[in-house]
Amino acid sequence: MGRITILRDFIGIIKDKASQSKAALLSNPKTLSLHLAILRATTHDPFTPPDPRHLAALLSFGHGSRATAATAIEALMDRLQITRDACVAIKCLITVHHIIKRGSFILQDQLSVYPSSGGRNYLKLSNFRDNTTPLTWELSSWVRWYALYLENLLSTSRVLGFFLCSTSSSVDKDEEEDKVSSLINSELLKETNSLVNLLEKICKRPNSLHANGNILVDEVVGLVGEDYLSSIAEVSTRVSEFRERLSCLSFADSVELVCALKRLEDCKERLLELSHRKKVLIESVWCSINEIKDQVGNSKVYREGGRLLTMGNRNKVSDSARFGDRVLVEHGESVKFSSGRSLSFNINFSFHSYESAELCH
User: Fold this and answer.
1) Does residue 300 contact residue 144 with C-beta atoms inside 8 Å?
2) What distances in angstroms separate CA 357 from CA 69, 305, 307, 354, one per listed residue?
3) Max alpha carbon distance in the chain (Å)?
């Protein structure tokens, strides 16, 4: 097995040299440096992550024209799709992750076009397999999971309206809270569910035996761990907003919120393994999540012989956003939010009985 590994590594070095020589001979002189940067960042070496210098060279192509950025993303995605080597694939995905986190808006925008434009999904790698060695076999499972995770990261970013975890699209905390407070309940729930879906994907990362301690896997875990901290901070902002709206949530919204927070709690132990930074702050966020879940569940929903009941009068707005001192409006009136949306209110009193055996799965 040792000889096979040494031979494979030697062949990988030859392939890297050949690919760079081919690029030097055949590439357009205007894009030669781009192709070389991608090849040098995504070598066959299983023990070396992408070199920061080569990543910086690749990211620099996002500061030119949109056409140049599009060429860079296309070349990277072609490299990802063509390769059958797990090390090259995982380095391509690490490079994609760096573009999401540190790339210019033009580069990020070109990247986000691929899964959402209705064309080919270049991150669909569910059939990727490299069975050359036990290590590459395990790295293949990381490739499949990592590609799916990045696809979900881009999807969640589209829902939120900004690139999550990106240093180039960081928003002031007060501005973010103002934006969140202007959302109606259905939009706020959509964002919360999307964030929970992303955190659930993090929990489904592979368990490694041969890849344990591999520097490529460690690099991936480090990047995803940073995403976890950013994502849980976004969840915290939305949970705090829901705390302000407890009296305004409809029964359906309450059930959906409790289910989302329950799913999130189920991920807690697996998520805490990712990062030991900001432990006190993170623990306070988890306590807040648990508190809100219990508050909503206890105040809105009761289990009684397999029936879910909503109790009391339903004289609250079912789909509302927080504004001012929550001034009540007359039937048919509209409220104009800072975001420019108008919302009409219909106030009803009702008592509902819902047949269900389970609240959350």
Assistant:
1) no
2) 52, 9, 7, 10
3) 80
